[in-house]
Amino acid sequence: MPLTATTSTTAAGVQFFLDGQPLGFGFTPDAGAGTSFSFAAYGTLDGGWSTSAVANGNHELSCRGWSSAGLGEVGAVTPVAVGNRSRAQLTTPADQVEVGGVVEVTAVFSGPQLPTAATFRMDDEILGTGECSSGPRHTAVCTYAWDSVATTTLNHWDMPGGLRVLTAEATIGGQTVRTQPVRSIVNIRSDAEMLLSEYEMAGLGRVGRDGGWSITLPGDPTKDFITFGDGIYRPITGPQKAEDAVGRWGNTSVVTESGTGLYGLLNEVPNRTNDPVNAPALTTVKPAPGVLKNEDGTDCSEEGGLAWSTGVVPKPNSDHVLMTYWGMCSRPGDWPLLQVFGIADWDPVTNEAVMHNVFVKAADAPGNEHLPSQMQLASPSTDGDYLYFWRPDAGALYLARVKIPTSGDAEPWTDPSEYEYRNVEAPGGWKADPLAATNLMPETSLGGNVDSVLRATNLPGQPWLMITHPDSWDTGIVNVYLADEPGAPWRPVPEWQNLVLCESCGHAWENGIYVVYSHPERSTAFELLFTFSDRTTGRVMQKTLPIPASMR
User: What distance in Å separates the CA atoms of residue 107 and residue 132, rounded to the nearest whole number?
Assistant: First the structure.
């Protein structure tokens, strides 16, 4: 049945409640702001409220709206009387739990007439038909064997796995009787867990990303901050805006409760309209129009301009966060043209960022050339005296640093002339010329790529920890190294050489893992948290591993 709510002022959306418990969300026809909102059942574009799973008797409906002005109060209740001749309930799997492999989906129908078969749906698309058998107390028990992996493994950026909404329905006495929607989280990996957003767990859509640099917020030790290089989300509940039909690409960020071990649910930031469950939003971390260029020198289009976050570090003498990024212009059939290394000064309170394009490709450089590798900095870290930036490259690793001022408002990291570059043969070990930087890649990984370098604050002496792919960027095998200080020789961790981080993942370019990071703020002296991007699923995965004795 249709369910509509009206707000007194323009709102971004509404949330419905049944007997005080969340029921779902309401949308305008174009999913934009408005004053009239129609309820959409989880997993449907415009499906109304089915009472078939609601107990007969008296109930109360209510709702609240939200906008940039804040989250509204729950309005007056509307009494409703439910009297179903036939009822339907999806009994397995349970709502909001993780599933994998072949899952038995069970629907129970009751009433004076019973079905002999039921249609099972996933995200409002028909999965198949399940037969019904006689159950206790004049019920029909209908089952369907759902191969959750086979039906969700579509392609990389359709995000196989993650949120899938299940329902079952049958025609009884000429009427369609449908169960309540069940929100299932499909994990096609047996030895790693997905990072999950509250947006996904709530039943609104799937979220895929890569990357995942993290720190504990400088001004709030109860929160961890994570930023992702690429992000795309696919709404599956409610009508979609045109630009959201297949999601959005770009840099996204989240906060979550701090602690040790695996991450819990992620809260998307920024949340400019105070949504109770916010959708992923592109951050403002992106070079301004006119900075990025096409190969022919013309301005890169808004759609073609990309920004990938490449690391985070607390801003010295501040509660802000410094986020490094690369600015690029996409090219058909080729790697994006990397032209900017920048640092964004992000304010966790306002969710706004001040952009600093530190290194920009020279205007007279050939159109098809990237910014020199030594200027493509990433992986920021600090020892309290300097900010360090590492540039992982194919078969190469470069290091730069900037002196941290002891006080005042100076921000030398925004000035290219303040950078020094590690050169092992130079007097003092550093030079002002970026092109004089020495390759610091260990010989055992010269044929591979560096995923990340950061300071392992959870380990004795707080050494620097590097993760490399020894063969190819996308295989499932990594090496781990330690160094006592930036620029010192890397020593391999013997137990973590040729480490297979995900046994159930692929180990070839097309189905391996990449951008492997460690997260010291959620690790201990005995256990290290890793995240990595799974090329097959388009998801960031997480797992903890016991720290070898040689590292302690």
Answer: 9
pLDDT at 354 over 60: yes
Average pLDDT over residues 170-175: 94
Residue of 232 and 360 predicted with greater confidence: 360
**Residue given tokens 């073609």 in the structure block:** 304
Q: Please report how many Cα atoms fall inside a 13 Å half-sphere around the Cα of residue 193, on the Cβ side.
A: 16
Burial class (CB in 10 A: 0-12, 13-18, 19+), 435: exposed
How far apart, in whole angstroms, are the C-alpha atoms of residue 533 and residue 512?
9
Look at the domain 193-551 and name its fold.
Answer: Tachylectin-2; Chain A (2.115.10)
**Right CATH for 4-82 from 1.10.860, 3.40.50, 2.40.50, 2.60.40:** 2.60.40
Give backbone dihedrals phi and psi of 456, rounded to 5 degrees, phi first.
Answer: -85, 80
CB 371 within 8 A of CB 378: no
Binned at pLDDT 50, 70 and 90, residue 445 comes out as: low
Evaluate whether 51 touches 180 at the Cβ level (below 8 Å).
no
CA separation for the pair 449, 288 (Å, rounded): 30
Secondary structure (DSSP) of 179-208: PPPEEEEE---SS-EE--BHHHHTTSEEEE
Query: How many angstroms from the chain centroid is the CA of residue 256?
Result: 12
pLDDT digits (tens, 9 = 90+) for 513-532: 888 999 999 999 999 999 99
Task: Tell me the β-bridge partners of 82.
Answer: 57
Q: What is the DSSP-derived secondary structure letter of residue 42? A: T
